[in-house]
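Input record (one chain):
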Amino acid sequence: MAKPIKELRLFIASPSDCQAEREAVRRIATIDQSIATLRRKLNLSIEPYGWENLPPDLGRPQSLINSAIENFDPDWFIFIFWHRFGINAGLGMTGTQEEWNLARQMNEQGDGRPLVSLYFNQADAPPYDLDETQFEALTRFRKQIFAEHQALASDFCGNTHFEETFRAHLIERLLALSEVDYEGTSQGADRLRQEFLSASQGLLAWPNTLGQGQQIERPELHGLVDRIQKTESSTTLVLGAPGSGKSALLATLGQRLVAERITILAIKADMLGPGVNTPEDLREWLQLTVGAHDALKVLAGKERVVFLVDQLDAVSELLDRRSGRLNVLLNLIQSLSKTRNLHIVASSREFEFRHDMRLSHINAERMDLALPTWEQISPILSQAGHFPDSMGELLRDLLLTPLHFKLYLHLAFPGDVFDSLQSLLEELWKKSVVDPQGPADRVALIEELASRMADEETLWLPAAIADKHPEARQMLERVEILARELHGQTIGFRHQTYYDYTLARAFARGSVSLAEHVLNDRMVFSSAQRS
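The corresponding structure, as predicted from the sequence alone:
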C-alpha cells in the first residue's frame, strides 16, 4: 500500500522590503526542480502561505491574518528581515511583530512545533530607501529576541545567497520530516552522511599501499590535512604524472578524514558512466536522495565537509569526446568553491590538465605531487631483499614513480634491472597475460574490455562482460591488472596505464578492432605523451 503524502506547511512573514525573498521561498518550494525531485522521492508536498493567500474580508487586516495563520496551522514559520520592521498594524505593533508573537506562542504550546526560523539580510540597503527609525526598530527587535528567546537565525547577503541558504534548510527539513515519520528518530543530515559514505567507497577502497602493506609517506597529504583543518574553505587541484600516486593520495586522505569523523563525498571520475550528462544523472549514479550540490551545501551549513574528485583526466576530451561528465563535475566544483566549511580536493594528470582547456581553467590552488625520494624507497627495497646501493641511476629514477616501484617489487628478483616503464609492463604481460601456463583467453579478455572502453569512452564496464572468461578474469584480478569495484558490478583496469598499454600493444600487433579505435581516437599519441 502506498504511503500517504505528507505535507510541510510554511508561513512566510516579512516587512515590505523582503518581497524578493518571499517570492524566492514560494518558487523554491513549488517550482525548483531539485526540490521537486526530492518531494517526489520522499512522497512529500510543500504548501507556502502568506498574507497574499487571504481573500478580501471586513475587519482589522492583521487580525484576519492572525486568524488565518492559526487555521493554516503551519509546520514552519519563516521570518525574513532586511532594513525595515513594518508599520503599526493597529495594536501598537507591526504586523510582522504580531506574527512573531503568535509563532512564539504556538511554538511554546506545541512543545517545539511549529519550527521558527529568522533570516536577516546583511546587504546594504539602498540609500534612498533607508529609514533610520525603521532600521533602529529592527535592531532593537533583533537584540530582544536573542536576549529573551531561543530561535534559529541565519544571516544572508542578498537574494542569491538567501536562495542558497533557504534551499539547504528546506532540504534538511524535508529529509527530517521523512526520516522521523517513517524511520524512527534518524535525522535528515544523518541520512545524507550515510549516503555520502556509501557513494565514496570506490575511492576509499582504492589500494594505497605496496605489495607488503608498506605505505610511502607523502608530504602533500599533510599539506592537504593542514589546509582542511586551518582554513574556512579551499579548492585544491592535485597534479601529477601517470603512476605518481594521485589516487592513493586521495584514498589515504579520505580514509583519514573518515577516521576523524569528518564528512566526505568522494568520487572517482573514471568510474562514472558515460550517461552522466546532467546533475540529476550524477545524483542517480551516486544514489543520493538529494543532488550533490544541494547535499554538500546542507551539510556544510552544519559542519566541515570535504569533497574529493579523483581522476578528472579520465573524463577529459582526450578520452571522452561525447559525454558531459567533465562539465558536470567542473560545474559542481565551480559552484561550490568558496562555500564556507567546504573543502574541495580534485586530481588530474598533468598532460590532460595542460591540453584540456576546461581543466586548465579550474579556479583552484594547484598542488604538484612530487615523486618520493630515494631515501624513502631504499629501505623498502632492502626489506624486500633487493640491493639498492648497487642500482644504477637509470633504475633509481624509474623506481621513484610509485606505480613503477610497485611493479618492480612484484616482478623483479634481486639483481634484476629494468630501464623503462615499457620494460616493466612487458615483463608484467609476459608473466601474467601471455604466459602459456595460465588461461589462454587472457589476451582476448583484456582486448575485448579495452575495445569496449574505447568505443564507449569509459574506463569501467559491467562485470558481466567478463562472464565468458571466468578463469582469465580471476587471474588478471589476482595479479591486479583488472579490478572490480567494491560491489562487483563493474570491471576495469587497475590502473589507467594498463589500459593505455593494452591499446598500444594491440596497435603494434595489428589487432584490427583495437587498431581502429587507436587511430580514430589518437590514443597512441596521447598514451605516449602521458607516459
